[in-house]
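Continuing from the previous page of notes. For each protein in this section, the sequence appears first, followed by its structure tokens. Read the first protein now.
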Amino acid sequence: MNAVALAAEQVPELHYTHHEGRGPTPHRSNPVVIHRELATLDLQPRMRVAEYGTGSGYSTELIARLVGPEGEVTSLDIDAYLTRWANLIHHERGLGNVRCHTADGTAGFRERAPYDRVVAWCTPPLLPKAWTDQVADDGLIVAPLPIADVPNMTVVAKVRVRHGEPVVDAVFTGGYIEATTSPKGDLDLPGRWVDWENRVPGPSWISLAWRAQDDRLHTGARSALERLLNAAHTEPYEGGDVDVDWPSWRTFAAALGNPQLTMAGLRPDLWAIGHSTTESAAVVQQDGVIFADSPDSPSLFALRAWLTAWENAGRPAPESYTPTLVPAGDDQGPAGWRLRLSH
């Protein structure tokens, strides 16, 4: 049995996720995925670890046990309710090597740096330079990173930092809630890159990779969302059940690097990916239904071509792509690196 599995036997998951004093927290990840990420992190005794996204505190205790009493765990979350309770639960369970702080994890936590390892359970807008600056030489970062500037286009990346420069060792299927500057209440709405949102008569939203070309009133986003909500044409995707291969399809769509890439939420719990312009829009939902503004929509033709290319490529797994980190300067927002994939 590996070290993570042994540690998991000592940590009562439900004590954290459904604590009788705090109540259940929806801010939690699948334990199977948590165990995978921690195994990838290669934690060793005496290591100093930064964790971004305290959540229920379950993963924090796993890390604390893996690094041992001589190790040190610093866990950050933007939600003070979560960090206060996590600190109390950890104290009650006798963990003296853990400290949870309320802070924006995308800025790191310099006070307790350097860290041998960094793990994140929330997705920053890019790999922050603050993280790489606070990692010891030859340290590891395991975190979800966007592969396009629209929501839910993510992979989990294993990044090694040498002499201050990050290199991606591997990418895996996965993604977590977006890192935000305040606690997130609506877990069904993306926390970032939503260009227009409707709340009545029902919730819907859209995200455009071409948002920089839209006007200040978001006319392009509003029009594209309206076209999709009132789609004049629908059809089943002939390739089969898209939902089975959604991680493959969303990764392929992101890796295209097409500036007309669009993501939308037209129905509750169903996300859609496709193509839009100022004049047309078409998307395919997770359930395999295609929505378009017309049967001869230019965006529909583009979407069909993308899906055909995806099928011809064999529905590649996210792990099969070649990752590249592209430096992002301060003039483009926070300093760091954008992750892009090619196949």
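Done with the first. The second protein uses the same format. Note its length before scrolling.
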Amino acid sequence: MATRYLSVDIGGSSIKYALMDGAGLILEKGAEETPTNGLTPFMAVLSEIVARYQDRINGIAVAAPGKIGADHSTIHFGGALPFLDGLDLRQALANQFDGPVVVENDGKAAALAELWLGNLKGIENGAAVVLGTGIGGGVILGGRLLYGSHQQAGEFSFMSSHYDEPQFIKAAAGSTGSAVRLVRTIGTMAQLADPGDGHAVFELISSKKEPAWTIFKQYTQRIAALILSIQAVVDVDRYVIGGGISAQPIVVKQINQAYSDLLSENEIIEKTLTRPEIVTAKFQNDANLYGALYSYLLFMDK
């Protein structure tokens, strides 16, 4: 039997899954609504997905929110799904599936997808910045994903954008750089029937309607400043921008413009920090499926 894997992406609204081969080819895929009312209904849905494939697969790869332990199995905090806190997924699925189960943080999975088959392939030093509810991602140094001493490298959401704010979390990049908040802010001000309608919001942005255009420009200035701050520490060659809004070409175009403006306005920065490339990530909605599988393959190869 050919080697097959089940890759699962646990999100706040949906659990995506795919049957994949070792080269990253998606053979089948689907999605189920994520139960948000507790661990028991959540595990019931996940177990049902596993049951569909358990006789056809050699292993299970999972991308999950929250900090993932060094065991690549235990979820801490759980992000938008706090009931996942403390869940050892390998153990939780042991009675159902006796093969390997490997869990990766969702932001790091997005970075690994780009490193494996995307726009960081062949890049020795790079980073992925994923714009969503918060800001996830990962840093690639020496061709490897950086985990750090406590598995938390690349948690860009917790970088401060305003050191004088007494409530740190209000000034954290995950709040000020939230793509979901950007869309909802513009949608509310434009009095859209659905303030969270991203397509309608980007129609306003693309036509440079006010105040949408000014709010969007301020947002991209914050993201450019975040990238510059990361660059000052890790000095990489390329940043890939992921997340749902990155599908809009104007996002990366305006981040590049804002980054260039930062340099032109600050000669000392321009002369000190070499400008990295800032490009759109290759993978959009399926990024974590690819990245989870690559994390699995790397873990099993240790």
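What the second structure shows: The chain has eleven helices and twelve strands. The chain has two domains: 4-105+286-300, 119-280. We return to this in next week's lecture.
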